[in-house]
Design brief:
Blueprint (H helix, E strand, L loop, with lengths): L3 E5 L3 H14 L3 E6 L2 E5 L5 E5 L14 E5 L3 H13 L3 E8 L4 E7 L5 E7 L4
Parallel strand pairs: 1-4, 5-8
Antiparallel strand pairs: 2-3, 3-4, 6-7, 7-8
Helix pairs in contact: 1-2
């Protein structure tokens, strides 16, 4: 259903380093790049874009907005969380079980956008 999500940044080179590392762990790379915009993803599934706002104002985060990155296993949830923190991200909740069938780690990118790496471990 979702083709891609775009997040704002005030420092595209800094943010690109963060998302390059996350995308590499997920097995995808950049598929579109312009002076003020970069997008990561593959030919299947949703992608993520990062841009300086078109209106020229400062980028800001949305309260309650979060992008969820689907991991293949718990180990990848852990690696994505660690990669995020090693590349300028901050912790929003260490990886662990959230209920019976959901496993996730939460973090923010260098601009403060909230993300998580998650795994569904069974039916809802």
């Amino acid at each position: 259903m979702i083709g891609y999500v775009t997040l704002g940044t005030n420092d595209l080179p800094r943010a690109a380093k963060f998302y390059d590392a996350i995308a590499a762990e997920l097995g995808v790379g950049r598929f579109m790049e312009f002076e003020n915009f970069i997008a990561w993803g593959g030919t299947e599934g949703a992608g993520i874009g990062l841009t300086k706002p078109f209106d020229g104002n400062a980028a800001s985060v949305g309260n309650g907005v979060m992008v969820a990155l689907e991991a293949k296993d718990r180990e990848q949830v852990q690696r994505l969380y660690e990669i995020a923190l090693a590349n300028g991200g901050t912790c929003e909740g260490e990886p662990g079980a959230r209920g019976d069938n959901f496993y996730a780690g939460y973090f923010r990118d260098p601009d403060g956008n909230k993300l998580n790496a998650f795994l569904m471990t069974g039916p809802l």
